UniProtKB/TrEMBL annotation:
This is AraC family transcriptional regulator. GO terms for molecular function: DNA-binding transcription factor activity; sequence-specific DNA binding. It comes from the Bacteria. SMART domains: HTH_ARAC.
Length: 258
């Protein structure tokens, strides 16, 4: 589940924090959202899976295939854990290729354990308490799970501008076909598509710098390994539905809200 362009937008506040050590191997960050009011949120692809409690249910949200509209419920707060790119299949217990983009109720994947977790979460009066309950759930889940480190290492390597999938496979000691199989199971797409998503996510992390005139779209395109600014534009439209300039204007509040 992608990160909002702005941490404060439309009355909502988004805050990330470091997960507890026992789950840090599979959880990239914990987050809290102060919703303010129910509304649709644009969620951009980032290659990760978020476990989300919104006060009504516990879901796994994945967006690797492209931008989606996620409905924020009219609640005071939501909490989530963002799983590291490359561990989704192992933690959820299903190949990521089996999940459709968007929110999948964890009851469909974890049955009784998810229902027990929802009961505990419903009793939490604060985001901190709900976050602790989520972390305990993941810690219990991964206790007997053998994690595949190869997709995590592949995702790390594919973030580098100019990375080649054949070289990444060779560096990790597998064939390109083997790399594709591992990555598809844990992420939902193959290495080349994941590379495109990770590069686009790198652009999203630089939207603020462009909006504040500290960088330009051309400079960002070159820094991230796009062939040129036009290449960035095509990929941005494919993965977000709008142009890079529209996302920059959105950050400044002069376009479609997050």
């Amino acid at each position: 589940m992608g990160v909002p362009l702005r941490r404060r937008s439309g009355g909502s506040v988004y805050h990330e924090s470091t997960p507890v050590a026992v789950v840090a191997g599979v959880v990239e960050s914990a987050w809290t959202g102060r919703v303010g009011r129910g509304r649709p949120l644009r969620v951009f692809p980032d290659g990760c899976v978020d476990l989300v409690w919104d006060g009504r249910g516990l879901t796994a949200v994945t967006t690797v295939g492209g931008v989606l509209r996620h409905e924020l419920p009219p609640v005071d707060w939501t909490v989530g854990l963002r799983l590291r790119c490359g561990v989704g299949g192992a933690v959820l217990g299903v190949p990521m290729t089996d999940l459709a983009p968007g929110a999948t109720p964890l009851r469909e994947l974890w049955a009784a354990s998810a229902r027990r977790a929802e009961s505990r979460l419903a009793e939490c009066a604060t985001p901190a308490g709900a976050r602790a309950a989520l972390e305990a759930l993941v810690a219990e889940r991964i206790h007997d799970v053998e994690l595949d480190g190869l997709p995590v290492a592949a995702a790390r390597a594919l973030r580098s501008p100019g990375a080649r999938t054949d070289q990444v496979a060779a560096d990790l000691g597998v064939s390109e076909r083997g790399l594709r199989r591992h990555v598809r199971h844990e992420v939902g797409v193959g290495p080349k598509e994941l590379q495109r998503v990770l590069r686009f996510h790198g652009f999203l992390n630089r939207v603020e710098a462009v909006a504040r005139k500290r960088s330009s779209l051309a400079d960002v395109a070159a820094e991230l390994g796009y062939a040129d600014q036009s290449h960035l534009g095509r990929e941005c439209r494919r993965l977000s539905g709008v142009s890079p300039g529209a996302l920059v204007r959105s950050w400044t509040g002069r376009n479609v809200p997050d």
